[in-house]
Structure formats: structure tokens, C-alpha cells
Amino acid sequence: MRWFGPNDPVSLMDIRQAGCTGVVSALHQIPVGEIWSVEAIKERIQIIEKDNNRYSKLKWLVVESLPVHEDIKKGLPSREYFIENYKHSLQNLAKCGIKTVCYNFMPVLDWSRTNLNYEMPDGSKALRFVWEDFAIFDLYILQRPNAEKDYEPEVRESAKIKFKQMSAEAIETLKNTALLGLPGSEEAFNLNTFQDLLDNYANIGDAELRSNLYYFVKQITPFAQNLGINLCIHPDDPPKSLLGLPRVVSTENDLTQLMQACDMPANGITFCTGSLGVRSDNDLAKMVKRFANRIHFLHLRTTKREENPLNFHEAAHLDGDVDMYEVVKAVIEEQIRRKAAGQEDSQIPMRPDHGHQMLDDLQEGITKRKTYPGYSAIGRLKGLAEIRGLQMAIERSLSE
Ligand code: DNO
User: Fold this and answer.
1) Which residue did the predictor score with more confidence, 371 or 16?
2) Is 274 helix (H, G, I), strand (E, B) or coil?
3) Which residue's alpha carbon is nearest to atom 8 within ligand 1?
4) Does residue 183's CB lie within 6 angstroms of at least one atom of ligand 1?
5) What is residue 192's predicted lDDT score, i.e. its pLDDT?
6) Which of 20, 102, 262, 272 is catalytic?
7) What is the DSSP letter of 109?
8) How far, in Å, are 11, 54, 294, 378 from residue 331 at the CA level?
């Protein structure tokens, strides 16, 4: 499971009792672009392992994320400096025995949603993305120049009507939700400075972002591979362009191009079924089979496309559009293949990505834990338990 560090209200003990042996973590306190020192990495390892003598063992298995500086994404001359720093951090991680490093290449924003508390039929709460609400944010709250051209006429029309009826409070909530694009921090961007960040990408379209990504990957992959590190890019979430910004890790074709841009095993993928599964043209089980030996980390969750297929919410882990049975089966087959080939990385680290707020996650009052959106304890525990059950059944049936 992901652990955001000492400020995470979900404790390491919770993670242990959920059945995990590996922890996914990052040094969120270090500003993007600065080097992660050996001391800082070791300090985090010690915290994660501090109860390992008394209880079942936890190990920091995956870094999520070693973030990529915006200058690298923008292809500025200063990228050379930040790429050197990135390599330095990789070297320090390898010295400390951490061999799987996740990153993403989404400009400005990381993941985006429009509602963090969408009520499910059973009263639990999920994350949701409504295209029309995103249009309201873009057209009427941010008022991004020329934003109209990015929305279908009927979406613009219904956004206009809905915005007029929204309370000041609802507008404020939507604004804060849309601006919250950073995992590991709960601070939203500031509306005034946000447009400046977008403007920096005015001359960077799909082709430029792709070439900046491939440049970066070609620089760091041979270096990482020498260190024994597997890099794994996280796909775009949601997998489409937002706010006029290009997104180039959304489809099977995007991943194919990226894998070919630097054809080395260490140039790998975080296969996030939740992000990729939003698009109906991504056939996930087929993609697991296709990219099998380049998948170094798994995020298992599923979304459900709604009546209007531009909208989706995060469904219970086995209950959405992703065929979790076929995906997990394809993963297990790859693990069997790796084991037979004597590969060291035959167990692909997996985490149950996101979960609903449910049971004690929803408890109001002074004991309520203010968790990171999507990262409550019990919702993730449920998702993990279901996936582990599925895994066991498939493994057993394949070995019979
Ligand atoms: C969302 C996460 C992403 C992911 C980054 C990886 O909950 O899956 O924010 O951590 O995109 O760089």
C-alpha cells in the first residue's frame, strides 16, 4: 500500500494489518528537482522498518514518485541540471536497495477529479470526474483564454446553465477539487498563479511533449538499468488532454511509442488499470500481455463509465469496467513466465490503488482521519482483500 510518510493518518500498522509486506512511499518533503540524499532515504527506511523485529516485516519496495521537474517536461535548457539531479537520486536509491521507481509525465497537474465525495448506492464515498463540471471550472472559474474550443457545444451549453445555478460554496468546492492536482500534498494550486503555469506550455503540443519525454527516458534509462533500477511511468489520469495541456501516456499506442523510444527493460510501465481503464479503447488484458516484460509495478483499481461516457467514478475494485479477472490472470501468467526464466523480479509489486471511504473512514467528529483523497484505510483494505482472493483463486486454478 501507499504510505505518504509520517503525516499520513493511515499508519504503518494499519498497512501491515491490511496484509501488506511492501510499502510504496516517497519523500514528499523534498522539493521537486532536488536530490534525495542517502540520509533522507535511510531515515524513511528506518521508519518503515522500525517494528520489523516485533511484527511481520514491512519493506519500502517502490518509490512513488520520484517526480520529474517541469523544466524537463518543457524541454528547457535547465533540464540537463535536473536530469543530473534525477540520476543522482536514482543512484542514492540504488545504494539503499530500492529498485523500483515510478514517475509520471503529466504537465502541471497530476490526477484530476471534480468530486472527492461522490455517494455510492451503499453510502460509501468515491472519487468522480464529470466532464461538464470540469468545463465549468475551466470556462467560468479559471476563465482560461480560448477554453471554449476544447468542449463540445452541448457540454458548453449545459455547463453554462449549471454554473448559473451553483451556490458560492459549490463553486468554491469545485475550484479547490480541480486545483488539487498533487498527490502527497493537500495544498491546492492558487487560481491566480495557475494560469501562468498553463501559459508556460503555450508552445508545447503533443509532439513536443513526446519528444521531451523520450529525451528524458533515453537519458535516464541506461543509467537506471546499470544500477539495477526499474523505471515505471504512470499513465495519465484521466487519460486525455485537460486544460489545453498535452497528455502523451494515455493509450496503447502511446505506450508502444514510449517503449520503442528506448527499448530497454528498465524503461517500464506502472500499469494503472484505473487510469488506463477510463478509455474504452484500452483493452487492458491485451495490454498486459503485450507489455508484459515492461510492467514493473501495478495499480489495481477500476472506474465505471457513466450514462454519459465522458464521466466516470471509481467503482469497487472488482465492480467496474476493468475485467479484473482477465487482468490479474495475465499478470500471474507473466509472473510464472518470469519465475521459470529465473528472473529476480518475478513478483511484480502491486498496490490496491484508491478505495472508497467506508465504515470508520466515514466516521465524523474528532476521531475522523483526514486521509488523502482516495487513500482511506478501510476502502483500500477491502480492495486489497478482494484482489488477493482473486489472485489466490487464479494461481490455484493455474497450478492444477
Ligand atoms: C493517484 C496516483 C498518481 C500517481 C502519480 C505517479 O492516486 O496514482 O498520483 O502517484 O501519477 O507519478
Assistant:
1) 16
2) helix
3) 353
4) yes
5) 80
6) 272
7) -
8) 29, 33, 12, 25
Q: Could you give all domains of the chain from N- to C-terminal order, each with its CATH number?
A: 12-112+198-399 (3.20.20.150)
CB 89 within 8 A of CB 52: no
Ligand 1 pocket member 374 (CB < 6 A): yes
140 assigned to active site = no
Distance 168 CA to ligand 1 centre (A): 30
Average pLDDT score over residue span 212-232: 98
DSSP notation for 173-227? HHHHHHT---TT--PPPPHHHHHHHHHTTTT--HHHHHHHHHHHHHHHHHHHHHH
% of the chain at pLDDT higher than 70: 97
- Angstrom CA distances, 56 to 2, 59, 109, 112, 301, stand at 17, 10, 37, 35, 26
Tell me: pLDDT of 386 over 70. yes
User: Measuring CA to CA, which residue among 117, 257, 99, 264 is closest to residue 176?
Assistant: 117
| pLDDT tens digits along 335-352 | 999 999 999 999 999 999
DSSP conformation class of 54 = T
d(CA 41, CA 26): 9
Query: Under a CB-based contact definition with an 8 Å cutoff, are residues 353 and 373 in contact?
Result: no
User: Is the beta carbon of 294 within 6 A of some atom in ligand 1?
Assistant: no
How close is the Cα of 196 to the center of ligand 1, in Å? 23
Cα of 399 vs centre of ligand 1, distance in Å, is 34
The predicted-structure confidence for 89-98, as pLDDT tens digits, reads as follows: 999 999 999 9
